[in-house]
What we know:
- Chain A is mostly helical.
- Chain A is about 80% helix and about 5% strand.
- In chain A, strands 1-2 form a two-stranded antiparallel ribbon. A two-stranded antiparallel ribbon of chain A has the order 3-4.
- In chain A, strand 1 and strand 2 (about 145-150) form a beta hairpin.
- In chain A, helix 1 crosses helix 8.
- The longest helix of chain A has about 35 residues, at about 1-35.
- Chain B is built from 14 helices and 8 strands.
- Chain B has a two-stranded antiparallel ribbon with strand order 1-2. In chain B, strands 3-6 form a two-stranded antiparallel sheet.
- In chain B, a hairpin with a 2-residue loop joins strand 1 (about 155-160) and strand 2.
- In chain B, helix 6 crosses helix 11 and helix 10 (about 315-345) packs antiparallel against helix 12 (about 365-380).
- The N and C termini of chain B lie far apart (about 60 Å).
- Chains A and B meet through helix 3, helix 4, helix 5, strand 2 and helix 13 of A and helix 2, helix 3, strand 2 and helix 13 of B.
Amino acid sequence: MTFQIIWFILWGILWAVYFMLDGFVLGAGMLHRFLGRNDVERRVIINTFGPVWDGNEVWLVTAGGATFAAFPTTYALMFSYLYTALLLLLFALIVRGVCFEFRGKLEGDRWKGLWDSAIMVSSFLPALLFGVAFGNIFQGLPMDAAGYHGSFLSLLNPFGLLTGALFVLLFLVHGSLYLTVKTEGELSARALAAANRFWPVLLIVAAVFLVAASPATRLDDNYLSFPLLLVVPLFAVASLVMIRISTARGKLLTAFAASCCTIVLVVATGLVGLFPSLIPSVIDPIYNLTIYNSSSSEYTLKIMTAVALVFVPIVIAYKIWVYRVFRAKITLQDVMEDEHSY
Amino acid sequence: MDVVALSRLQFAVTSMFHFIFVPLTLGLSIMVAIMETRYVRTGNELYLAMAKFWGKLFLINFALGVVTGITLEFQFGMNWAEYSRYVGDIFGAPLAIVATLAFFLESVFIGVWIFGWNKVSKKMHAVAIWIVALASNLSALWILLANGWMQHPVGFVLRNGRAEMVDFMAMITNPYGLLKFAHTVVSGYVVAAFFVLGISSWHLLRNSRPDFFKVSFRMGAVFGLLSIFLVLLTGDFHAVEVAKTQPAKFAAMESVWETKAGAGMNLLTIPDPAQERNAVEAVTIPKLLSYLAYHQPDAEVKGLKEFPKEDRPPVLPVFLSFRAMVGMGFFMTLLTFLAVFVSWRGTVEKHTLLLRILLYSIPVPYIANQLGWIVAEVGRQPWIVYGVLKTSDAVSTSISVAQVTGSLIGFTLLYGLLGFVDIFLLVKYARKGPDGDLSALIQAARKEV
């Protein structure tokens, strides 16, 4: 049935766009204590994503809602099997959201220092947990007809942690590049230096991930059957390399764009290999949760497709408008003069 | 406690906490939008100062409403996997739609409103807060259509071992959901009105910025009176719908044990659930209950004994919550009426007793809102989807008592802490009052109002 394939693609797009957009907020959040050397600089960093972070996080809510509506069985089992991991993720996202609002509401170094630390931890944790979760989804979960046989600790296996490290580094590079293009002067230079420092580490981890994925997962099945699909990981590697070429040439906006592409293509690389599974079973492929055995009825998928086709373009249109309204770089002067900034 | 009880408690804690912040968002967004529109139309900066002052409080409140919402979406899968699997085909759709239609709008334009003062035109800035107000009310519509479906499931068939959607239009025109939406959002407007009235009263009692807060007070009073009137009206229609579709819940709300035509309403009732009767029934108004339930004085009202014991909701919490909610509704009607009256007479600051009562009444609509949810959700028990799926069959099978105990403790501590900080900041900024000297502006505003 074609609607199940359409929803697999939409599902993948929602996750990819979420990681592309929240990725730079998470990355900038992890770094803001280190790149911002004083209160004003830290405020500049928060204000670079101030107008957009909330809208970016809604892609996650939509991805969750789409999983529920299109693949309810996968939603039910994925969320209950990964209970503790999702709980930590929720706590981190909740804390991160209020940090931005609360931080500037009182003066005092201890108050602000507290929220600065909270921003760092609550940005790092989701990056890591999303990576661990997707690493485990790529590998498959220990599940059969009787249910789930794993635990939170069993998620922290080598390949899960490797994918966690991959996500953290992707977001660190992405966030640094975002801050490079959205700030000026010394702060921007510091962010660029950070991006260049993280990039080789990312390259190594990405290479290890690609090598490890073959024995650790069954992602390569689809690629072996349809070698043409290898363009996806090839383009992912190409855009990863493009990041460093662009920063070396001083084309910073191109570097950020390449970083956006890298994240989307990394997600695509995983999902192309995963198809048509949503969560494989490591016990036996007959227990795989696929788009065919876990989807909603055709009627529901048709309604949801109509909703998505009408409203997602509208969302994208006003999001582009907002990014244009707030396209200017944030300066030290901006945050000191504007009473409304964070 | 078992996983079912713990998961129910956790859902209650997280959703009730979420609903401390949501009603104010629903109402205050509209009030701030009205203030800013007045500023754009008249050019009077008093209204700009009002939009900024109340807008700041709006944002402190808004932040917690947003972040605690994600928990609810995730919890359906985390704790209620069997529910999600069984009804996801129809229940998942409104949740995906609410994110696409409403949450994006709300989150994007709140960014424009907070950061856009110098980036977009005055008009566009006012439009931004209107979009936020519209989107948050629109999100309430889809969430309450989803909840309305759990209360009165329509547009589905049981097929392939689950409930499958066959009629999308039936779900989005479900009268239960629409009435619940109407009743819930106007209740939120009342929360906002009492918030504005109470804080204005605090300042008026201290004679701080009296002119600024007199204008705010008037707006809160009028907005409150209109809203509470709508609360009573929608509440009446909603009760009729409950009597029709959920007779066991209605019987528990009024603690009616025996089925009776032309049933009267007791102003004083003391239920005795153990004996399946009421220990005290006094001050009975003939035929009123039948009228309230069906808008016909001789209609038959079903008693709890019509239903097998295991299909009845717990009577006491439903009955007491409903009584207290209705009592608070009438109390708030009286208060808003008085507030409009003294505001119209122009003698607000002289009525210190009323001001003091209004200040301490800020929590009243909040409590009434929570009680309404207790009536709705406890009254639906033992069903999670009324008549279709029992709550005890809906819980995740893969989670343990230890896991849910841990998460419940975690949520309680985290929410407690964040709630404390949020209320602390709200009080601080509410006391601080508006920025800058406004006396000149206020003179000009006085001539207009």
